[in-house]
Amino acid sequence: MTPEDLKSLIRTIPDFPKPGILFRDVTTLIGHGTGFASATAMLADHARKAGAQAIAGIEARGFIFGAAVAARLGLPFVPVRKPGKLPVPVLAMDYALEYGTDTLEVDPEAVVEGHIVVLIDDLIATGGTAHAAVKLLRRAGGVVNKGLFVIDLPDLGGADRLRGEDLSVEALMEFEGD
């Protein structure tokens, strides 16, 4: 399948989670066996070319794509979790949201010092969550120089924000607008 074929598998839901937003839903891509396999293969190819030694995925949909890529490449998977989900001492990073803050956590033993960690998530919008994940993984000792996303919403500037943090960013597809 081509990236355009994959793009046709993305469902758009208007006015979710609030009026005026066009929600790009990857559930329909994940539910299409051939499409999901193709997306995973494309992401894995980019990760391999980046020299990945581990794959990190952001909760929740980043787990789906990231774990599939890690398994395909035979690499460790590092989950970047929401607070309170890991049963061990964690490294945590707070980050700003539109209204308030949130936190991400990682098990520091899941990241090998100096290993190349490629970050994967389903979508890059403003980049706040991905930016915090990159900082957290770097603090844990990972060399994070590549972010891979299924969807980029370029009008929201997240990919450019990450590029400003010395991160190469690639997405399988883009959707203009919110």
Automatic annotation (TrEMBL):
<dbReference type="InterPro" id="IPR005764">
    <property type="entry name" value="Ade_phspho_trans"/>
</dbReference>
<dbReference type="GO" id="GO:0003999">
    <property type="term" value="F:adenine phosphoribosyltransferase activity"/>
</dbReference>
<comment type="function">
    <text>Catalyzes a salvage reaction resulting in the formation of AMP, that is energically less costly than de novo synthesis.</text>
</comment>
<feature type="domain" description="Phosphoribosyltransferase">
    <location>
        <begin position="51"/>
        <end position="141"/>
    </location>
</feature>
<keyword id="KW-0808">Transferase</keyword>
<dbReference type="InterPro" id="IPR029057">
    <property type="entry name" value="PRTase-like"/>
</dbReference>
<comment type="subunit">
    <text>Homodimer.</text>
</comment>
<protein>
    <recommendedName>
        <fullName>Adenine phosphoribosyltransferase</fullName>
        <ecNumber>2.4.2.7</ecNumber>
    </recommendedName>
</protein>
<dbReference type="InterPro" id="IPR000836">
    <property type="entry name" value="PRTase_dom"/>
</dbReference>
<comment type="similarity">
    <text>Belongs to the purine/pyrimidine phosphoribosyltransferase family.</text>
</comment>
<dbReference type="GO" id="GO:0016208">
    <property type="term" value="F:AMP binding"/>
</dbReference>
<comment type="pathway">
    <text>Purine metabolism; AMP biosynthesis via salvage pathway; AMP from adenine: step 1/1.</text>
</comment>
<dbReference type="GO" id="GO:0006166">
    <property type="term" value="P:purine ribonucleoside salvage"/>
</dbReference>
<keyword id="KW-0328">Glycosyltransferase</keyword>
<keyword id="KW-0660">Purine salvage</keyword>
<dbReference type="GO" id="GO:0006168">
    <property type="term" value="P:adenine salvage"/>
</dbReference>
<dbReference type="InterPro" id="IPR050054">
    <property type="entry name" value="UPRTase/APRTase"/>
</dbReference>
<keyword id="KW-0963">Cytoplasm</keyword>
<dbReference type="GO" id="GO:0002055">
    <property type="term" value="F:adenine binding"/>
</dbReference>
<dbReference type="Pfam" id="PF00156">
    <property type="entry name" value="Pribosyltran"/>
</dbReference>
<dbReference type="GO" id="GO:0005737">
    <property type="term" value="C:cytoplasm"/>
</dbReference>
<dbReference type="GO" id="GO:0044209">
    <property type="term" value="P:AMP salvage"/>
</dbReference>
